[in-house]
Amino acid sequence: MTDTDFMREALAEARLAADAGEMPVGCVIARDGEIIARAHNECEACRDATAHAELLAIRRASAAAGDWRLNRCTLYVTLEPCPMCAGAIVQARIGRLVYGAADPGQGCAGSLYRICEDPAFPHFCKSDGGVLAEACSQLLNAFFDRARSRN
Known about the structure:
alpha/beta, 5 helices
């Protein structure tokens, strides 16, 4: 599978989030070409500000791998990670991060800051953005358009 294929899987997760009334962010974690975890935002359902797709997927990947160190894994997410999620990616020793849409408001994989690539931290995680960015952005924009029309 290619980065585009994995991002399509993350988009499928994001659509599940949208269908559930959550901010449509989806994530998959792959190791050796296979998906070992998938998740989407569940903040509303869990009433938990930390129930972001990336954190849920990291927990599931750690359980699947039997280790909290996920250095052989690539995390695919539809929206550039926020500071909390970027920090978790570093802590989990994720080997590579691939995201779809940039987040100029709070993205910490290139837009505002590069937490995952900061040499001050003992672990370095290469980041690549813009994979299926248009599809990821359209899903997010539709969600926010619906939210604004309700107010």
